[in-house]
Structures are given as C-alpha cells and as structure tokens.
# Entry
Amino acid sequence: MVEQAKGVLMSKFDVDAPTAAALLLVWAAQRRITPTVVADALVNDIFQGHQTMTEPQLVRWLERCLRSLP
# Structure
C-alpha cells in the first residue's frame, strides 16, 4: 500500500520517490499513526474515492496537506 501511495504522489502531485516516501513518513508521524494507514487513506479514500476510513478526519486532514503541496 505504501508503494501505491508513493506512486500516487509521484504521478498526481509531481514529487520524486524520496519526497513521496518522506511525505508519508512525516504525515504519519504528525498524526501518530503508521505510514500504512496514511497510504491506505491516500490511495483508497482520496485517490480512488472509496469511503473506507473509519476516521474521516484523517482523510480531510490529508486532503488539506495535499492542497498545500507546491
């Protein structure tokens, strides 16, 4: 899942692989969750549009983080 999330960040948000990996780690640390949970929310809830998260606040927060990317 983490590799898929990195791919989404690279293709849709034009970041390189090290930056994508770093973003997932930073976001996970900020929310005190695992990078896998962040990756799952990014891939399934945001990119694919499924509503799978039991924590919609995480999805909204990630959307704000993505909007702030250059």
Remarks:
- The chain has four helices and no strands.
- Residues 42 and 62 are 7 Å apart (CA to CA).
- The two ends are 24 Å apart (CA to CA).
- Residues 2-67 form one domain.
